[in-house]
Input
Amino acid sequence: MDEAARKLFSGPIAFLKSAPALKFLPDPGVPEVAFAGRSNVGKSSLINRLTNRTGLARTSNTPGRTQELNFFDVGDPLRFRLVDMPGYGFAKAPKDVVKKWRFLVNDYLRGRAVLKRAFVLIDSRHGIKDVDREIMKMLDEAAVSYQLVLTKADKVKATELAAVHEATAGEARKHVAAFPEVIATSSEGGMGIDHLRRALLDSTG
Output
């Protein structure tokens, strides 16, 4: 395992603030990396596994509950900020909530110069859905570099994982801002976590 990454993620990581609107964003003094994904993709579990914490990112039984950008400080001295973006694609959310989500996310993506990379999480069991393509399009248009990350890789057979990995990489190649490499991860088993940590470090310089 990469020693620099291990050291950083076993060191201080703290919740900074939630921003329900752009005016609440922290000062753009350090690099930021953002995590985006469908409401039930396992984003909170992955962030918790990534940071060696059990309750850093709230896991909720109600998908789509978090409608704010959550900022976490990584490292002391501060190395970068991890941004947990509100989940998308929730079926039961009222239209105005979806609209608010779109404005918040779009404005953040377009106007945040310190955002170095977004990680878009895709459920290994389902592959890329239309709602994922929508956020990928938003990222392409905002010219934000992003990388696709498969979650719950331990929940599918190796052959199925290989097929979804190949299809996801094929989709990434069609998008101008997408990173060509796809990382397969498992929050439970730890697969791909070191790889993802390295990608975070690389993207923040």
Residues 70 and 142 are 20 Å apart (CA to CA). Strands lie at 13-19, 32-37, 69-74, 80-84, 115-123, 146-151, 183-184.
